[in-house]
Specification:
This protein has about 270 residues and is an alpha/beta fold. It has a 5-stranded mixed beta sheet with strand order 5-1-6-13-7. Strand 2 and strand 3 form a beta hairpin.
């Protein structure tokens, strides 16, 4: 009986060892995520997450068409992949959901005035930067606020999920922070007096000041915000990241990026 048990134990161990090696030698390709670039090619179009309320980067025109610098960059990427900029699907994202839509695969990439930060780099990969913004403050034209520090103890608006929210809480910890999902919601709160100021990127706030003489932006910038294209982490996204970097590098080296800046009033 003892001999039988020993034999059974040996057989069981052999099966376990064999199973281990079979699993270890299993074709790793079966366990990997499909290559994103290949998936895009097979699908026949690129899916880009963009904003629709941040003129001049991504906004809806009067006819409902999405336009802006970020949209033009998305078109350039689609053209590089398919030789046709129209092989592109634009999906609306906000600062609070753009990382979610990217990581869950709702979009292939995000081009939505997204600043490169160490915290975000832990979650996703970024392309080369295509624009440098700086954060400032939007206030009513007759406001006595002249610096970020003046927001101490005041109601100040930010957009959820932006670096401005973190910077305001860090630099002015006594400010009463009101968070909003969209820039237009924050702007309405400023106009009705709920908040005394909005903190965000100068390029976005400037558009409100240009179109409404009852508000102004402060001259001082208190940060540097490098915008880049966000792409999911993982080796299955390596080719897509290389393609995006190639497009941005080309736009910069052939001076096309400066023409786009001029087109959208950013220079």
């Amino acid at each position: 009986m003892k001999r039988v048990l020993i034999i059974l134990a040996i057989i069981t161990a052999a099966i376990l060892v064999a199973g281990f090696y079979l699993w270890d030698s299993y074709d790793s390709k079966q366990l990997e995520m499909p290559d994103t670039y290949k998936t895009i090619l097979e699908r026949g179009y690129l899916i880009a997450g963009v904003k629709e309320d941040t003129k001049p980067f991504g906004y809806k025109d009067t006819d409902g068409t999405l336009k802006g610098l970020d949209i033009d960059i998305a078109k350039a990427i689609a053209k590089s992949i398919f030789r046709d900029e129209n092989k592109l699907k634009l999906v609306s994202v906000t600062p609070s959901d753009r990382l979610i839509k990217l990581t869950t695969g709702d979009v292939d990439l995000v081009i939505a005035t997204m600043t490169v930060t160490p915290q975000r780099m832990d979650l996703i990969d970024f392309s080369h930067s295509y624009f440098i913004a700086g954060q400032t403050v939007l206030v009513p034209v007759d406001s006595k606020i002249t610096a970020l520090s003046d927001l101490a103890g005041e109601n100040a608006g930010v957009i959820f999920g932006t670096t401005a929210e973190k910077n305001l809480r860090t630099l002015v910890p006594t400010a009463k922070v009101f968070g909003y999902r969209t820039y237009n919601d924050a702007y309405k709160a400023l106009k009705d007096g709920t908040i005394k100021a909005i903190t965000s990127d100068d390029t976005i706030l400037r558009n409100y000041a240009l179109n409404d003489k009852s508000v102004r932006i402060l001259n001082k910038r208190y940060s540097k915000e490098p915008y880049a294209v966000g792409i999911r982490k993982g080796k299955e996204n390596k080719i897509l990241l290389e393609k995006v970097n190639f497009v941005i590098k080309t736009l910069i080296t052939n001076n096309s990026i400066n023409h786009l800046y001029a087109k959208w009033g950013l220079r």
